[in-house]
Specification:
Elements: H1 3-37, H2 40-54
Length: 66
């Protein structure tokens, strides 16, 4: 079985399992992700990432000269 075939089968299985889980499970996962995003460890990582991004020469705050 090739990579593309395996990828397609995996996507199809994921879709079917996700559809069976339904909206309630989706809302549970969404709630869990929102809580995790607001946790202190994740907030610290986001802060470090923003700090690092400010020092990159290609960050959004730097406009190209010329």
């Amino acid at each position: 079985m090739g990579f593309k075939t395996g990828l397609m089968i995996g996507a199809a299985v994921g879709y079917v399992l996700g559809a069976k889980a339904g909206r309630e499970r989706y809302e549970q996962i969404k709630h869990w992700v929102a809580n995790a995003a607001q946790s202190e460890p994740v907030a610290g990582l986001v802060g470090k990432g923003k700090s690092l991004a400010e020092h990159l020469p290609f960050s959004a705050d730097h406009t190209p000269e010329g």
